[in-house]
Design goal:
Strand content: 5-15%
Order of helices and strands: HHHEEHEHEHEHEEHH
Helix content: 40-55%
Number of strands: 7
EC number: 2.3.1.51
Structural class: alpha/beta
Shape: globular
Catalytic activity: a 1-acyl-sn-glycero-3-phosphate + an acyl-CoA = a 1,2-diacyl-sn-glycero-3-phosphate + CoA
Number of helices: 9
Organism: Planococcus glaciei
InterPro entries: AGP_acyltrans, Plipid/glycerol_acylTrfase
Strand order of the largest sheet: 1-7-6-2-5-3-4
Radius of gyration: 18 Å
Largest sheet: 7 strands, mixed
Pfam families: Acyltransferase
Mean pLDDT: 88
CATH topology: Glycerol-3-phosphate (1)-acyltransferase
Length: about 250
């Protein structure tokens, strides 16, 4: 319970600082390139995420960062738990936005930051919103920004990788960008497996070899979905086995 209180107090207690820094960043925007501004904006969410993860006292191991390409890319990860976003923000040096449910817009400061990070908001109850989110994501990628997506749609809570929805393939094909698979294991240990109480977890993140834009264009959508899912799922299973062998 104590770790949960410390984590959530930092989550909201940091917002006034973040709001002041955002104003400073926005004042510099006119003098920076898109890539420079993305990198500048990324520093604050990364600092916030590192603070969150430090307060959970979790151990995070990250590998494969050399696979991150220059230029815009669609980052595709399995979705294990609520701490996937903080872990990835704290560990992935490449600036990225992500697709988020529209309810986040009700929070103070956070949605303003997310808009400058090039996040896309989705109303899951509205089919038109889903189509628009795909178009908005393609637009962000074509404009030179990277986006993270969880094709499972919902958290697996550590119960293995579930089926991938097909929207991410259309996004990658329409935007003409590479897909970077990312395997996540262990985030559900922090919260979901503890009746939503925060406890230290052992999280493993691995960035995997990208699928090039040329390869994506050539492959059939169903085949590509299966290839990306299998690539991530195989690595998640390997992570789980390695962790079990150490116990």
């Amino acid at each position: 319970m104590y770790k949960s209180l410390r984590t959530f107090s930092f989550l909201f207690g940091y917002l006034p600082v973040a709001a002041m820094n955002l104003k400073k960043f926005q004042a510099q925007k006119a003098n920076l390139s898109k890539q420079e501004y993305d990198a500048l904006i990324h520093t604050e969410p990364q600092k916030w995420a590192k603070g969150i993860m430090a307060r959970t006292k979790s151990r995070v191991e990250t590998s494969g960062l050399d696979y991150l390409p220059d230029g815009p890319a669609l980052l595709v990860a399995n979705h294990e738990g609520n701490f996937d976003i903080p872990v990835l923000l704290s560990e992935i040096p490449k600036p990225f936005g992500f697709i988020s449910k529209k309810e986040v817009k009700k929070l103070p400061v956070i949605p303003v930051y997310m808009e400058d990070m090039n996040c896309v908001f989705l109303d899951r109850t509205d089919r038109k919103s889903a189509y628009k989110s795909i178009a908005d994501t393609v637009g962000k990628l074509k404009d030179g920004h990277s986006i993270l997506i969880f094709p499972e749609g919902t958290r697996s809570k550590g119960e293995g990788v579930t089926d991938f929805k097909s929207g991410f393939i259309r996004i990658a094909k329409d935007a003409g960008v590479p897909i970077v698979p990312i395997a996540i294991h262990g985030t559900s240990e922090i919260m979901e497996k503890n009746s939503n109480q925060i406890r230290p977890g052992h999280v493993t993140i691995r960035v995997l070899e990208p699928f090039s834009a040329e390869e994506i264009e050539k492959l059939d959508a169903k085949e590509l979905i299966e290839k990306v899912k299998t690539t991530i799922e195989t690595e998640v299973q390997s992570m789980a086995q390695r962790k079990a062998d150490l116990q």
